[in-house]
């Protein structure tokens, strides 16, 4: 099983980034996909989740209206479009897969994890 996140980088406040997570080794369309993030010294926190087929998505209050999660089952990929970025969005972002569905999944509930990609929002 592999989940490879990419797309992080340095961006100014108010800017945008699009994160990608390409997966392999499991039946992607049967899994809900989520993004989490973690700042140094803090616990990993939920950002967004999308159900099988992409019918439903939920977001953390802190990113709702600014971030959009999407998936491409044909290419076993999940994306996170991040707009109007704030300095407090600075973190390492991780994609994860869960066979079950939860509106606000706990990191402990996820089945598979990828390595993170660093997003830095700074002027």
Percent helix: under 10%
Describe the sheet with the most strands.
7 strands, mixed
Radius of gyration using CA atoms only: 13 Å
In percent terms, what proportion of residues is strand?
A: over 45%
What class, by secondary structure content?
mainly beta
Number of extended strands: 11
Distance between the termini: 37 Å
The oligomeric state is single chain
Low-confidence runs of at least 5 consecutive residues: none
How many helices? The count is 0
What is the 3D form?
A: globular
Task: State the order of secondary-structure elements, H for helix, E for strand.
Answer: EEEEEEEEEEE
If you average the pLDDT, what whole number results? Answer: 96
What do you see in this structure?
This protein is mostly beta strands and about 120 residues long. The chain has strands at about 1-5, 10, 15-25, 30-40, 45-50, 55-60, 65-70, 75-80, 90-100, 110-115, 115-120. It has no helices and eleven strands. Strands 2, 4, 5, 6, 9, 10 and 11 form a seven-stranded mixed sheet that branches. A four-stranded antiparallel sheet has the order 1-3-8-7, with no helix packed on it. Helices cover about 0% and strands about 50% of the residues. The mean pLDDT is about 95. It is globular. Strand 7 (about 65-70) and strand 8 (about 75-80) form a beta hairpin.
Summarize the SSE layout with pairings.
Blueprint: E1 2-6, E2 9-11, E3 17-24, E4 32-38, E5 45-50, E6 57-59, E7 67-72, E8 77-82, E9 91-98, E10 112-113, E11 117-121
Parallel strand pairs: 2-11
Antiparallel strand pairs: 1-3, 3-8, 4-5, 4-9, 5-6, 7-8, 9-10, 9-11
């Amino acid at each position: 099983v592999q989940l490879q996140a990419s797309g992080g980088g340095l961006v100014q406040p108010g800017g945008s980034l699009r994160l990608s997570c390409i997966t392999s080794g499991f039946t992607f369309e049967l899994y809900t996909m989520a993004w989490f993030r973690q700042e140094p010294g803090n616990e990993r926190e939920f950002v967004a989740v999308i159900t099988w087929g992409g019918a439903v998505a939920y977001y953390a209050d802190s990113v709702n209206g600014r971030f959009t999660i999407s998936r491409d089952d044909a290419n076993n990929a999940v994306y996170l479009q991040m707009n109007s970025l704030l300095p407090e969005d600075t973190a390492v972002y991780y994609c994860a897969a869960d066979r079950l569905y939860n509106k606000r999944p706990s990191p402990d509930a996820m089945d598979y994890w990828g390595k993170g990609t660093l997003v830095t929002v700074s002027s």
